[in-house]
Amino acid sequence: MNLFASKLKNLRKNKRIGIRTLAHKLGVSYTYISHIEAGRVIPAEKLIRKIARFFKVNAEELLVKSGKIPKDVKKIIYKHPEEVIYLLRESFANYTPHPSKTEVIEKFFNKFKNKYQIKSLTFIAEDNIIESLKAIPDESIDVGIAIPAFDIEEVYNPFLMGETKKEEYLISLSEKWLSEYQRVLKPQANLFVFSIPKYLIYFATYLDNHMTFKYWFAYETKINSHGIPLIPNQLGIILFVKDKNKFLINKVREPHKKCLACGDFLADWGGKKHLRNPDGTVISDVWVDLPDSTKYWPFKHYIPEEAFHRILKLSMKPNNNALIAPIGGIHYDVGA
């Protein structure tokens, strides 16, 4: 049941009137009211305002609960998107995630914290990113992982020329919190930025004026093609370091590939299998071996959990401090 359906049902019961009576008062069929209360349909704005007048409640509240934005408010949002978002976040600075999401977030990070012996692991939700980052002390973080809060499948079209106002705002906002990352990172720290190639170009250009570029990692994934040619088939991670003279990265190995049919190794090492490293092969900067994720975590923006593991393997030392923001960028199977 959606929020509007639940609200309407409560209003009707509190007034102690039946569905047929309400339908008669509103000039609609009783089956239509039944469908609304069951969450199967959302009424038009005109009927919602009529319901508000009948029950003497705020029409704006009912419109929002139904998923409809009042027309005058919609015009303001479209005309001043950046100012509206800023004012809302400033007004509700004490916003906290829904308890169920918070529990999932804690479960996710506790697993990584224990596995990689992370001394302190700080994660920041999508809301109030800048203010949250400002509260972190200067040069206190060893590894930073930045995941811009973009809906990848919604915005990724390599044939789209020019940026929408929404994209321009998101890019501008990302630069602000990337600036905060630079402040909180230790001199020897690594910064990984995850996104699609389209946006990594902007972030790399910005960061190149402040840090040193080291690697661009690409990994194979599946993105909805939206019927366009040359289906996008990779996401990316750029690695920048704060001090190029103190750059450190771990050597990460993955198991040698085997034949699915016979179970033997695909490579023969020139007949010298005894020289094969038992820990596997050193990974390259192109990741085609990670399983692609098909389920979404509570957020639409995602990074497969396997890729997150690999980033930590590359950069974490025991008792390091790590920072991840925004949390909306991580994909995790809550059933794990």
Contiguous low-pLDDT stretches (5 residues minimum) are 93-98, 158-162, 293-301, 327-336
* Structural class determined from secondary elements: alpha/beta
Query: Radius of gyration, rounded?
Result: 25 Å
Which bin fits the share of residues in helices? Answer: 40-55%
Ends: how far apart? 27 Å
Which band does the percent of strand residues land in? 5-15%
CATH-defined fold name of the largest domain: Rossmann fold
Q: Helix and strand succession? A: HHHHHHHHEHEHHEHEEEEEHE
> Which CATH-level-2 architecture of the largest domain?
3-Layer(aba) Sandwich
Let me know the number of strands.
Answer: 9
Q: Quickly count the helices.
A: 13
Describe the structure concisely for a colleague.
The chain is an alpha/beta fold and 336 residues long. 40% of the residues lie in helices and 15% in strands.
